Amino acid sequence: MAKKIKSVVKIQIEAGKATPAPPIGPSLAPHGVNLPLFCKEYNARTASMAGYIVPATITVYTDNSFTFTLGTPPTSQLIMKAAKIEKGSGEPNRNKVGKITRAQVKEIAEMKMKDLNALDLESAMQQVIGTARSMGVEVVD
Amino acid sequence: MDRWLELSLETDAETAEAIHEALFPIVEGRVALEQLHCPDGAPADRWENEAPQGPVIVRAWLALDQPEADQTRARVERALAALRLIRPLPAGRWREVRQSDWAEAWRTAFHPLRIGERLLIRPSWIQAEAVETRPGDITIVLDPGMAFGTGLHPTTQLCVLAMMKHIQADERVLDVGCGSGILSILAAKLGASVVLGVDTDAEAVRVSRENAALNGVADRVRFAHGSFELADQVYDWAIANILAPVIARLLAEGLANYGRRFIFSGILKSQVEQVRRACEEARLSLCEEQQLGDWVALVAQHAS
After folding, report:
1. What is the ipTM of this complex?
2. pTM of whole model > 0.80?
3. Which residues in A lie closer than 8 A to residue B108 (C-beta atoms)?
4. CA distance A141 to chain B (A)
Protein backbone atom coordinates (compact mmCIF):
# COMPACT_ATOMS: atom_id res chain seq x y z
CA MET A 1 0.00 0.00 0.00
CA ALA A 2 1.07 3.54 -0.58
CA LYS A 3 2.11 4.63 2.85
CA LYS A 4 2.29 8.36 3.06
CA ILE A 5 3.22 9.60 6.50
CA LYS A 6 1.21 12.38 8.07
CA SER A 7 2.97 12.70 11.37
CA VAL A 8 5.33 11.06 13.84
CA VAL A 9 4.50 11.27 17.55
CA LYS A 10 6.83 10.29 20.39
CA ILE A 11 5.59 9.64 23.91
CA GLN A 12 6.94 7.90 27.00
CA ILE A 13 4.41 5.95 29.01
CA GLU A 14 4.45 3.32 31.71
CA ALA A 15 4.41 -0.22 30.37
CA GLY A 16 0.95 -1.77 30.35
CA LYS A 17 -0.71 1.42 31.58
CA ALA A 18 -1.70 3.19 28.36
CA THR A 19 -5.06 4.99 28.60
CA PRO A 20 -6.66 7.69 26.44
CA ALA A 21 -5.66 10.33 29.06
CA PRO A 22 -2.79 12.73 28.25
CA PRO A 23 -0.31 12.34 26.67
CA ILE A 24 -1.90 9.63 24.50
CA GLY A 25 -5.39 11.01 23.80
CA PRO A 26 -4.71 14.63 22.89
CA SER A 27 -1.56 13.82 20.88
CA LEU A 28 -3.02 10.97 18.79
CA ALA A 29 -6.77 11.63 18.51
CA PRO A 30 -6.42 14.72 16.28
CA HIS A 31 -4.81 12.41 13.70
CA GLY A 32 -7.70 9.96 13.84
CA VAL A 33 -5.62 7.28 15.55
CA ASN A 34 -7.85 4.52 16.93
CA LEU A 35 -7.17 5.22 20.63
CA PRO A 36 -8.53 2.01 22.20
CA LEU A 37 -6.65 -0.05 19.62
CA PHE A 38 -3.39 1.79 20.25
CA CYS A 39 -3.76 1.38 24.04
CA LYS A 40 -4.57 -2.31 23.69
CA GLU A 41 -1.59 -2.97 21.38
CA TYR A 42 0.81 -0.94 23.51
CA ASN A 43 -0.27 -2.63 26.71
CA ALA A 44 -0.05 -6.08 25.14
CA ARG A 45 3.42 -5.48 23.73
CA THR A 46 4.77 -3.98 26.97
CA ALA A 47 3.12 -6.44 29.36
CA SER A 48 6.44 -8.06 30.25
CA MET A 49 8.03 -4.69 31.11
CA ALA A 50 5.68 -3.77 33.98
CA GLY A 51 6.98 -0.94 36.16
CA TYR A 52 9.17 0.55 33.44
CA ILE A 53 8.62 3.55 31.22
CA VAL A 54 8.68 2.35 27.62
CA PRO A 55 8.88 5.05 24.93
CA ALA A 56 6.71 4.62 21.86
CA THR A 57 7.16 6.22 18.45
CA ILE A 58 3.88 6.30 16.57
CA THR A 59 3.83 6.85 12.81
CA VAL A 60 0.47 8.07 11.52
CA TYR A 61 -0.30 7.69 7.82
CA THR A 62 -2.47 9.92 5.66
CA ASP A 63 -5.39 7.50 5.87
CA ASN A 64 -5.35 7.68 9.70
CA SER A 65 -3.87 4.22 10.07
CA PHE A 66 -0.74 3.91 12.20
CA THR A 67 2.14 1.72 13.30
CA PHE A 68 4.40 2.12 16.29
CA THR A 69 7.78 0.98 17.57
CA LEU A 70 8.90 0.63 21.16
CA GLY A 71 12.13 1.93 22.63
CA THR A 72 13.89 0.85 25.81
CA PRO A 73 13.24 2.39 29.25
CA PRO A 74 15.40 5.42 30.18
CA THR A 75 18.84 4.41 31.57
CA SER A 76 18.18 6.24 34.84
CA GLN A 77 15.08 4.15 35.42
CA LEU A 78 16.90 0.88 34.79
CA ILE A 79 19.60 1.97 37.26
CA MET A 80 17.01 2.82 39.94
CA LYS A 81 15.43 -0.62 39.49
CA ALA A 82 18.80 -2.36 39.70
CA ALA A 83 19.81 -0.38 42.81
CA LYS A 84 16.32 -0.87 44.29
CA ILE A 85 15.87 2.85 44.98
CA GLU A 86 12.93 5.17 44.33
CA LYS A 87 14.86 8.20 43.13
CA GLY A 88 18.35 9.48 42.45
CA SER A 89 20.42 11.70 44.73
CA GLY A 90 19.99 15.47 44.83
CA GLU A 91 23.69 15.80 45.59
CA PRO A 92 25.29 12.93 43.69
CA ASN A 93 28.86 13.91 44.62
CA ARG A 94 28.25 13.86 48.38
CA ASN A 95 25.18 11.86 49.04
CA LYS A 96 25.33 8.31 47.59
CA VAL A 97 21.94 6.67 47.53
CA GLY A 98 22.66 3.19 46.20
CA LYS A 99 24.98 0.68 44.54
CA ILE A 100 24.91 -1.45 41.42
CA THR A 101 27.39 -4.09 40.30
CA ARG A 102 29.40 -4.09 37.07
CA ALA A 103 27.38 -7.13 36.01
CA GLN A 104 24.20 -5.04 36.34
CA VAL A 105 25.84 -2.22 34.39
CA LYS A 106 26.60 -4.71 31.62
CA GLU A 107 23.02 -5.96 31.66
CA ILE A 108 21.64 -2.41 31.34
CA ALA A 109 24.16 -1.53 28.61
CA GLU A 110 23.14 -4.61 26.60
CA MET A 111 19.49 -3.71 26.93
CA LYS A 112 20.09 -0.07 25.92
CA MET A 113 22.67 -0.84 23.23
CA LYS A 114 20.37 -0.24 20.26
CA ASP A 115 19.23 3.16 21.60
CA LEU A 116 22.60 4.40 22.85
CA ASN A 117 25.02 6.26 20.66
CA ALA A 118 27.79 3.75 21.42
CA LEU A 119 30.14 1.83 19.13
CA ASP A 120 30.68 -1.14 21.40
CA LEU A 121 29.45 -2.61 24.66
CA GLU A 122 32.38 -1.15 26.63
CA SER A 123 31.51 2.44 25.65
CA ALA A 124 27.82 1.76 26.28
CA MET A 125 28.80 0.57 29.80
CA GLN A 126 30.78 3.77 30.32
CA GLN A 127 27.66 5.80 29.46
CA VAL A 128 25.60 3.79 31.94
CA ILE A 129 28.27 4.30 34.63
CA GLY A 130 28.22 8.04 33.90
CA THR A 131 24.44 8.18 34.33
CA ALA A 132 24.69 6.16 37.57
CA ARG A 133 27.33 8.52 38.95
CA SER A 134 25.19 11.57 38.15
CA MET A 135 22.39 10.00 40.19
CA GLY A 136 24.57 9.25 43.22
CA VAL A 137 24.65 5.51 42.53
CA GLU A 138 28.02 3.81 43.03
CA VAL A 139 29.28 1.06 40.76
CA VAL A 140 30.93 -1.82 42.62
CA ASP A 141 32.58 -5.05 41.43
CA MET B 1 -10.17 14.69 35.42
CA ASP B 2 -11.81 16.33 32.49
CA ARG B 3 -10.12 19.70 32.21
CA TRP B 4 -6.50 20.01 31.16
CA LEU B 5 -4.18 22.84 30.37
CA GLU B 6 -2.16 22.21 27.23
CA LEU B 7 1.14 23.89 26.51
CA SER B 8 2.48 23.81 22.97
CA LEU B 9 5.75 25.04 21.51
CA GLU B 10 7.00 24.70 17.96
CA THR B 11 10.75 24.29 17.64
CA ASP B 12 13.58 22.24 16.12
CA ALA B 13 14.24 18.59 16.95
CA GLU B 14 17.18 19.14 19.28
CA THR B 15 15.52 21.89 21.37
CA ALA B 16 12.36 19.76 21.52
CA GLU B 17 14.32 16.92 23.17
CA ALA B 18 15.72 19.33 25.76
CA ILE B 19 12.26 20.71 26.57
CA HIS B 20 10.88 17.17 26.81
CA GLU B 21 13.62 16.21 29.24
CA ALA B 22 13.01 19.30 31.41
CA LEU B 23 9.21 19.01 31.52
CA PHE B 24 8.85 15.24 31.83
CA PRO B 25 9.20 15.06 35.66
CA ILE B 26 7.15 18.23 36.25
CA VAL B 27 4.09 17.12 34.30
CA GLU B 28 4.45 13.47 35.36
CA GLY B 29 5.27 12.23 31.90
CA ARG B 30 2.35 13.96 30.17
CA VAL B 31 4.42 15.34 27.34
CA ALA B 32 4.56 14.41 23.66
CA LEU B 33 6.77 15.30 20.72
CA GLU B 34 5.20 15.49 17.32
CA GLN B 35 6.95 15.91 14.03
CA LEU B 36 4.79 16.75 11.07
CA HIS B 37 6.16 14.77 8.19
CA CYS B 38 4.86 16.97 5.49
CA PRO B 39 3.68 20.47 6.40
CA ASP B 40 0.31 21.42 4.97
CA GLY B 41 0.44 22.48 1.38
CA ALA B 42 3.69 20.68 0.58
CA PRO B 43 3.57 18.31 -2.39
CA ALA B 44 2.46 14.76 -1.68
CA ASP B 45 5.76 13.12 -2.42
CA ARG B 46 7.35 12.32 0.91
CA TRP B 47 7.32 8.74 1.98
CA GLU B 48 7.95 6.50 4.88
CA ASN B 49 11.61 5.92 4.07
CA GLU B 50 12.44 9.62 4.23
CA ALA B 51 13.39 11.31 7.47
CA PRO B 52 10.69 13.68 8.73
CA GLN B 53 11.48 17.27 7.83
CA GLY B 54 8.80 19.43 9.43
CA PRO B 55 9.16 21.35 12.68
CA VAL B 56 8.69 19.58 16.01
CA ILE B 57 5.82 20.47 18.31
CA VAL B 58 6.24 19.84 22.02
CA ARG B 59 2.99 19.46 23.94
CA ALA B 60 2.57 19.05 27.68
CA TRP B 61 -0.56 18.68 29.74
CA LEU B 62 -1.40 19.42 33.34
CA ALA B 63 -4.64 18.57 35.12
CA LEU B 64 -6.65 21.70 35.94
CA ASP B 65 -8.83 19.93 38.47
CA GLN B 66 -5.95 19.43 40.87
CA PRO B 67 -5.28 21.94 43.67
CA GLU B 68 -1.61 22.27 42.73
CA ALA B 69 -2.34 23.15 39.07
CA ASP B 70 -1.11 26.73 39.50
CA GLN B 71 2.16 25.64 41.11
CA THR B 72 2.76 23.07 38.37
CA ARG B 73 2.23 25.70 35.71
CA ALA B 74 4.67 28.01 37.50
CA ARG B 75 7.26 25.20 37.62
CA VAL B 76 6.83 24.61 33.90
CA GLU B 77 7.33 28.33 33.21
CA ARG B 78 10.47 28.35 35.40
CA ALA B 79 11.90 25.32 33.58
CA LEU B 80 11.30 27.03 30.22
CA ALA B 81 12.86 30.26 31.51
CA ALA B 82 15.95 28.30 32.58
CA LEU B 83 16.22 26.71 29.13
CA ARG B 84 15.88 30.13 27.53
CA LEU B 85 19.12 31.16 29.19
CA ILE B 86 20.92 28.48 27.16
CA ARG B 87 19.13 28.66 23.81
CA PRO B 88 16.42 30.71 22.11
CA LEU B 89 12.95 29.30 22.69
CA PRO B 90 9.65 30.32 21.13
CA ALA B 91 6.90 31.50 23.46
CA GLY B 92 4.69 28.66 24.65
CA ARG B 93 0.97 28.76 23.97
CA TRP B 94 -1.43 27.67 26.71
CA ARG B 95 -4.97 26.58 26.13
CA GLU B 96 -7.60 24.63 27.97
CA VAL B 97 -8.62 21.27 26.53
CA ARG B 98 -11.21 18.74 27.66
CA GLN B 99 -11.20 14.98 27.73
CA SER B 100 -14.33 15.07 25.58
CA ASP B 101 -12.32 16.87 22.87
CA TRP B 102 -10.44 13.70 22.08
CA ALA B 103 -12.10 10.73 23.80
CA GLU B 104 -14.45 10.10 20.89
CA ALA B 105 -12.99 12.59 18.43
CA TRP B 106 -10.77 10.07 16.65
CA ARG B 107 -13.86 8.16 15.55
CA THR B 108 -15.18 11.09 13.59
CA ALA B 109 -12.39 10.42 11.09
CA PHE B 110 -14.05 7.10 10.29
CA HIS B 111 -17.63 6.82 9.21
CA PRO B 112 -19.23 4.40 6.80
CA LEU B 113 -17.54 5.08 3.50
CA ARG B 114 -19.01 4.40 0.09
CA ILE B 115 -16.60 3.82 -2.79
CA GLY B 116 -18.13 3.73 -6.24
CA GLU B 117 -21.64 2.39 -6.67
CA ARG B 118 -21.54 -0.76 -4.62
CA LEU B 119 -18.81 -0.91 -2.00
CA LEU B 120 -19.54 0.14 1.56
CA ILE B 121 -16.76 0.16 4.16
CA ARG B 122 -18.16 0.04 7.67
CA PRO B 123 -16.07 0.64 10.82
CA SER B 124 -16.50 -2.37 13.08
CA TRP B 125 -17.99 -0.34 15.95
CA ILE B 126 -20.94 0.80 13.87
CA GLN B 127 -23.80 -1.71 13.80
CA ALA B 128 -24.85 -3.05 10.40
CA GLU B 129 -28.45 -1.94 11.02
CA ALA B 130 -27.29 1.64 11.56
CA VAL B 131 -26.03 1.93 8.00
CA GLU B 132 -28.25 2.26 5.01
CA THR B 133 -27.46 -0.29 2.31
CA ARG B 134 -28.73 -0.77 -1.20
CA PRO B 135 -29.45 -4.08 -2.96
CA GLY B 136 -26.26 -5.48 -4.48
CA ASP B 137 -23.98 -3.65 -2.05
CA ILE B 138 -20.76 -5.27 -0.96
CA THR B 139 -19.95 -4.44 2.65
CA ILE B 140 -16.46 -4.70 4.13
CA VAL B 141 -16.13 -4.39 7.89
CA LEU B 142 -12.83 -2.89 9.03
CA ASP B 143 -11.39 -2.04 12.42
CA PRO B 144 -9.36 0.95 11.24
CA GLY B 145 -6.03 1.34 12.88
CA MET B 146 -2.82 -0.61 12.50
CA ALA B 147 -1.50 -1.13 8.93
CA PHE B 148 -2.24 1.07 5.98
CA GLY B 149 -5.48 0.67 4.06
CA THR B 150 -8.58 2.12 5.70
CA GLY B 151 -10.14 2.99 2.37
CA LEU B 152 -9.78 6.71 3.00
CA HIS B 153 -6.82 7.16 0.68
CA PRO B 154 -7.39 7.90 -3.03
CA THR B 155 -4.94 5.17 -4.10
CA THR B 156 -7.04 2.52 -2.35
CA GLN B 157 -10.23 3.99 -3.78
CA LEU B 158 -8.86 3.92 -7.32
CA CYS B 159 -7.84 0.32 -6.86
CA VAL B 160 -11.26 -0.62 -5.49
CA LEU B 161 -13.00 0.99 -8.48
CA ALA B 162 -10.79 -0.86 -10.98
CA MET B 163 -11.33 -4.18 -9.17
CA MET B 164 -15.11 -3.76 -9.09
CA LYS B 165 -15.14 -3.01 -12.77
CA HIS B 166 -12.96 -5.91 -13.89
CA ILE B 167 -12.78 -8.83 -11.49
CA GLN B 168 -15.15 -11.68 -12.33
CA ALA B 169 -16.36 -14.60 -10.22
CA ASP B 170 -13.97 -17.57 -9.94
CA GLU B 171 -10.91 -15.59 -10.97
CA ARG B 172 -7.69 -15.87 -8.98
CA VAL B 173 -6.25 -12.72 -7.43
CA LEU B 174 -2.80 -11.87 -6.09
CA ASP B 175 -2.59 -8.75 -3.85
CA VAL B 176 0.98 -7.52 -3.49
CA GLY B 177 1.35 -5.19 -0.49
CA CYS B 178 -1.94 -6.17 1.15
CA GLY B 179 -1.78 -3.65 4.05
CA SER B 180 -5.00 -4.01 6.01
CA GLY B 181 -6.18 -6.76 3.64
CA ILE B 182 -8.98 -4.56 2.30
CA LEU B 183 -8.34 -5.36 -1.38
CA SER B 184 -7.92 -9.10 -0.82
CA ILE B 185 -11.20 -9.15 1.10
CA LEU B 186 -12.89 -7.23 -1.68
CA ALA B 187 -11.56 -9.73 -4.24
CA ALA B 188 -13.07 -12.59 -2.22
CA LYS B 189 -16.38 -10.73 -1.93
CA LEU B 190 -16.37 -10.20 -5.70
CA GLY B 191 -16.31 -13.97 -6.02
CA ALA B 192 -12.62 -14.69 -6.59
CA SER B 193 -11.93 -18.39 -6.01
CA VAL B 194 -8.36 -18.03 -4.81
CA VAL B 195 -6.86 -14.93 -3.20
CA LEU B 196 -3.30 -14.54 -1.97
CA GLY B 197 -2.28 -11.35 -0.15
CA VAL B 198 1.40 -10.74 0.59
CA ASP B 199 3.12 -7.96 2.50
CA THR B 200 6.71 -7.43 3.60
CA ASP B 201 5.37 -6.03 6.89
CA ALA B 202 4.52 -8.87 9.31
CA GLU B 203 2.12 -6.58 11.18
CA ALA B 204 0.12 -6.02 8.00
CA VAL B 205 -0.17 -9.78 7.48
CA ARG B 206 -1.51 -10.24 11.02
CA VAL B 207 -4.04 -7.40 10.66
CA SER B 208 -5.12 -8.70 7.23
CA ARG B 209 -5.89 -12.12 8.69
CA GLU B 210 -7.98 -10.56 11.45
CA ASN B 211 -9.90 -8.45 8.97
CA ALA B 212 -10.52 -11.44 6.68
CA ALA B 213 -11.97 -13.34 9.65
CA LEU B 214 -14.11 -10.31 10.56
CA ASN B 215 -15.56 -10.43 7.05
CA GLY B 216 -16.08 -14.18 6.91
CA VAL B 217 -13.76 -14.78 3.97
CA ALA B 218 -10.83 -16.35 5.84
CA ASP B 219 -11.45 -19.64 3.99
CA ARG B 220 -10.85 -18.13 0.56
CA VAL B 221 -8.08 -15.65 1.32
CA ARG B 222 -4.57 -16.57 2.32
CA PHE B 223 -2.03 -14.05 3.62
CA ALA B 224 1.72 -14.54 3.71
CA HIS B 225 4.70 -12.51 4.89
CA GLY B 226 6.95 -11.62 1.95
CA SER B 227 6.68 -10.52 -1.67
CA PHE B 228 5.20 -11.91 -4.89
CA GLU B 229 7.75 -14.73 -5.06
CA LEU B 230 5.46 -16.51 -2.60
CA ALA B 231 2.91 -16.92 -5.41
CA ASP B 232 2.72 -20.56 -6.49
CA GLN B 233 0.75 -20.06 -9.70
CA VAL B 234 -0.17 -17.55 -12.37
CA TYR B 235 -3.08 -15.41 -11.17
CA ASP B 236 -5.79 -13.91 -13.33
CA TRP B 237 -5.12 -10.60 -11.63
CA ALA B 238 -2.07 -9.26 -9.85
CA ILE B 239 -2.82 -6.08 -7.90
CA ALA B 240 -0.18 -3.76 -6.49
CA ASN B 241 -1.40 -0.72 -4.57
CA ILE B 242 2.01 0.48 -3.42
CA LEU B 243 4.08 3.30 -4.91
CA ALA B 244 5.40 3.98 -8.39
CA PRO B 245 9.08 3.25 -7.66
CA VAL B 246 8.16 0.00 -5.89
CA ILE B 247 5.84 -1.06 -8.70
CA ALA B 248 8.60 -0.38 -11.23
CA ARG B 249 11.00 -2.48 -9.16
CA LEU B 250 8.51 -5.35 -8.79
CA LEU B 251 8.04 -5.37 -12.57
CA ALA B 252 11.80 -5.45 -13.10
CA GLU B 253 11.98 -8.38 -10.68
CA GLY B 254 9.45 -10.37 -12.69
CA LEU B 255 6.00 -9.63 -11.24
CA ALA B 256 4.61 -9.90 -14.78
CA ASN B 257 5.22 -13.67 -14.71
CA TYR B 258 2.69 -14.14 -11.92
CA GLY B 259 -0.34 -12.46 -13.45
CA ARG B 260 -2.34 -12.31 -16.65
CA ARG B 261 -3.76 -8.87 -16.02
CA PHE B 262 -2.68 -6.17 -13.58
CA ILE B 263 -3.96 -3.25 -11.54
CA PHE B 264 -1.29 -0.80 -10.41
CA SER B 265 -2.15 1.98 -7.96
CA GLY B 266 -0.32 4.37 -5.63
CA ILE B 267 1.09 6.27 -8.60
CA LEU B 268 1.38 10.06 -8.55
CA LYS B 269 0.51 11.84 -11.80
CA SER B 270 4.14 12.86 -12.15
CA GLN B 271 5.24 9.22 -11.83
CA VAL B 272 2.99 7.63 -14.45
CA GLU B 273 5.78 7.72 -17.02
CA GLN B 274 8.07 5.66 -14.77
CA VAL B 275 5.47 2.90 -14.44
CA ARG B 276 4.60 3.08 -18.13
CA ARG B 277 8.26 2.46 -19.03
CA ALA B 278 8.52 -0.40 -16.52
CA CYS B 279 5.41 -1.96 -18.07
CA GLU B 280 6.89 -1.70 -21.57
CA GLU B 281 10.09 -3.35 -20.44
CA ALA B 282 8.07 -6.16 -18.85
CA ARG B 283 6.15 -6.46 -22.18
CA LEU B 284 2.86 -5.32 -20.69
CA SER B 285 0.49 -3.00 -22.49
CA LEU B 286 -1.66 -0.46 -20.68
CA CYS B 287 -5.36 -0.70 -21.30
CA GLU B 288 -6.80 1.78 -18.83
CA GLU B 289 -5.85 4.82 -16.80
CA GLN B 290 -7.98 6.30 -14.02
CA GLN B 291 -7.29 9.43 -12.05
CA LEU B 292 -8.43 10.77 -8.67
CA GLY B 293 -6.83 13.95 -7.35
CA ASP B 294 -3.06 13.64 -7.73
CA TRP B 295 -3.25 9.86 -8.07
CA VAL B 296 -3.44 7.48 -10.99
CA ALA B 297 -4.28 3.79 -11.28
CA LEU B 298 -3.34 1.72 -14.33
CA VAL B 299 -4.77 -1.51 -15.72
CA ALA B 300 -2.34 -3.56 -17.82
CA GLN B 301 -2.13 -6.91 -19.58
CA HIS B 302 0.44 -8.93 -21.50
CA ALA B 303 1.13 -7.48 -24.93
CA SER B 304 -0.14 -9.94 -27.50
Report:
1. 0.78
2. no
3. 32
4. 31
